[in-house]
Amino acid sequence: MNIYKLSEMSEEKRQFIMKRAELDISEQMKIAKEVSDDIRVRGDEAVLEYTAKFDRVQLSAENMKVSEEEIERGYNACDEKTREAIEYAAKNIHDFHEKQLPEEIWFTNVDEGLMVGEKTTPIVDVCLYVPRGKGSFPSVLLMLGVPAIVAGVPRVVVVTPPNEKGGVDDAILAAAKIIGIKEIYKVGGIQAVASVAYGTQTIPKCHKIIGPGNSYATAAKRVLANYIDAGLPAGPSESIILADEKADPHKVALDWMIEAEHGPDSAALLVTHSKELADKVVPIMEAQLEKISEKRREFIKTNYSTYGGIIITDSLEQSIDFVNDYAPEHMEVMCENPFDILPKIKNAGEILLGEYAPITLCNFVLGPNAILPTGGFAKTYSSVSVFDFLKRSSIGYVTKEGFKRVRGYADTLATVEGFDTHALAVRERKVD
């Protein structure tokens, strides 16, 4: 178990913790280039071959697309409790993202006779990548699909790796039916990204792909960046629990483990200036480990001995500085006055306040989007939102009087920058 005193940490160890599991995917990129080039030339035939090779599933061009009957069967096969949970989550996610919608058109006068503004429209299409490697993730489809639908994207395409039976998991199909998505393809990894980047006989070309995937899907996005917008960078899961001496050690222990169970490359940190709290949390966490599966237990143990653990600081202010430097994907503020700390948190994918807002809630049902920037990208990126599915066009309108007022300034700047026709367009323009 990693337990560090921040003031005594070596620079090498600090950089290791800061870097997380940023994987070198150069080898995956070589494979992604080869596979993508083949799919560009051979289309469906190559997609089916690579699906058989990588996913060990035999499909045909005829059953690569999920039929409406399959969606209906998956929805009906999903137990009522699961459907109810999906419906509840979908409603909250919808309500949250609907609040994000900007004005469709706005204008303002920057000077007399000079009117400017913006028009917001949905992107023309989008491909949602829903992973499957470690399980079924209907919540990912909700987090991607709901804001796309709220934004009004005309064509929403889903790609997801097939299961062992060559189908799509029932919970994902139920989520698709509940939110109204009908175009789903049983393809994942490199072949999914390449298919929508180039288009095949069966799978449509899309202008954007968004959603978390494995290292091969990530490599394909990088290789094909000139052909498709790859959206938010989303890597291995990570979290920080920021706690003070007033925090309940039992709740801290429970929440500290949440992101650590995602996989051996995840990073879950407890950051506190209270050594007493840390000393209480560790045995509680160890006792809780006995209640979970061996697989998840091993993920957590690996996490706490590599990229995760406990960081003990000298003060709450130093803890906050560390959080802002780390820029976590998920973070919880489990302190006495969380709303006082909120303005001080500058870099985080999501900020959850108080002892009753575990990451679990935001991952599934609270409403804010759980697909967040990782690897320190929270310093420059935001969570997935309706804005990932919208684009803005600038608008300008100038009256005759406004043109007379502004033409000289434009002429001067065009001349300074050496653009002759720019200058002529205003200098030679007749004004009756």
β-sheet strand percentage: 15-25%
Shape: globular
Write the element-wise H/E pattern from the N-terminal end onward: EHHHHHEEEHEHEHEHEHEHHEHEHEHEHH
Kindly state the mean pLDDT as a whole number?
95
Distance between the termini: 80 Å
Structural class: alpha/beta
Q: What's the total helix number? A: 17
Helix coverage percent of residues? 40-55%
Biggest sheet, spatial arrangement of strands: 1-10-9-8-11-12
Counted beta strands: 13
Low-confidence stretches: none
Q: Work out the radius of gyration.
A: 25 Å
Biggest sheet record:
6 strands, parallel
Question: Layout of helices and strands, plus pairs?
Answer:
Blueprint: E1 3-5, H1 11-19, H2 26-42, H3 44-55, H4 68-77, H5 80-100, E2 105-111, E3 114-122, E4 125-129, H6 138-151, E5 155-160, H7 170-179, E6 183-186, H8 189-198, E7 209-210, H9 215-223, E8 238-243, H10 249-256, E9 267-272, H11 275-289, H12 294-305, E10 309-312, H13 316-326, E11 330-334, H14 338-341, E12 350-353, H15 359-364, E13 390-398, H16 400-416, H17 420-427
Parallel strand pairs: 1-10, 4-5, 4-7, 5-6, 8-9, 8-11, 9-10, 11-12
Antiparallel strand pairs: 2-3, 3-13
